[in-house]
Amino acid sequence: MIGFLGQAIFSLRFIVQWITSEKEKKSVVPVVFWYLSIAGSLILLIYAIERKDPVFIVGQSAGFLIYFRNLVLIKNTKTESK
Q1: Tally of CB atoms within 10 A around 47
Q2: What DSSP character marks residue 29?
Q3: pTM of the prediction?
Q4: Within 10 A of 67 (CB to CB), how many other CB atoms are there?
Q5: Cα–Cα dist 82/64, whole Å
Q6: Contact (CB, 8 A) for 46 and 2
Q7: Cα–Cα distance measured from residue 75 to residue 80, given in angstroms and rounded to the nearest whole number
Q8: Closest CA to 59 of 72, 50, 49
Q9: Where in this chain does the record put each Lipid A biosynthesis N-terminal domain (predicted)?
Q10: 79 confidence band (pLDDT: 50, 70, 90)
Q11: Domain, as residue range, for 60
Q12: Which one of 36, 59, 61, 71 is most buried, by most CB atoms within 10 A?
């Protein structure tokens, strides 16, 4: 169940991005995309650790760091524009 939950949250981010882009009539990556990425990736990482799957662990760990970094960059951009 943990794996399915993580995959569902991870997949939800694409739906959110698609809906947002359709509303804006251009490609948009909303901030919630990155939060869903982190949540889904973290849950999938927990699942991978439980299954003792080193390939899955490395993949989810790398993604988790990239998603978190994107949130930091977004925060820094907003701070600089004030």
Answers
A1: 20
A2: -
A3: 0.79
A4: 20
A5: 28
A6: yes
A7: 9
A8: 49
A9: 2-73
A10: confident
A11: 17-22+29-80
A12: 36
